[in-house]
Amino acid sequence: MRVAIDTNVLAYAEGVGDAERCRVAIGLIERLPESAVVLPAQVLGELMLVLTRKAGRTREAARDAVLGWADSFDVSDSTWASFQSAFDLSVNHEFRMWDAIVMAVAAENCCRIVLSEDLQHGFTWRGVTIVNPFLPDESPLLAAIL
C-alpha cells in the first residue's frame, strides 16, 4: 500500500505547529515504510513557503529541509493528466485546485491514502482515501500500513 503525505504533515514534522501535532507527525513518518511514501512535488513547493513564511526560516534553510525530504522519499511530479483530473475534482467536489493536484498525483501513483489534516477525512476518490492522522481514532487503512 502506498501513501502520499500532504504539506501540513511535513510542516508539523519540521516543528511548525503545536507540540502534540509535531510529535505525532514525527512518530508517524518514522513508522511509515520508506518505500511506500510518495511526496507530490506540489507538497514540497508548499512546504518551502510554509517554512519561509510561517516558520521564518531562511530560504537556504527551507531549501535544505525540502531537499532532505526529497532525498528520503519518492517525489512525484504533476503531469498534464494529473491537472486534468484535478480540474474535475475541483469542479465536482469543490476541492481547492492545489489540494486537488495532491489527490490526483496520489491517484496516479497508486496511493491508497493521502495523509492530511486539511482535507476531508474519509473522502475517497479514484481509490485514494484521505486520512487525518491527528484524529484520536487511528484509521484502519493507516493501521494497515504501519
Overview in brief:
This protein has 146 residues and is an alpha/beta fold. The protein has helices at residues 7-13, 19-31, 41-54, 59-72, 80-93, 97-108, 140-145; strands at residues 2-5, 37-40, 74-76, 111-115, 124-125, 128-131. Helix 1 crosses helix 2 and helix 3 runs antiparallel to helix 4.
Question: Could you please describe the fold and organization of this structure?
Answer:
With 146 residues, the protein is α/β, with parallel strands linked by helices. It has one domain: Rossmann fold (3-Layer(aba) Sandwich), CATH 3.40.50.1010. Helices cover 55% and strands 15% of the residues. A 6-stranded mixed beta sheet has the order 3-2-1-4-6-5, with helices on both faces. β5 and β6 form a beta hairpin. The longest helix is centred in the first third of the chain and has 14 residues. The protein is globular and about 35 Å long.
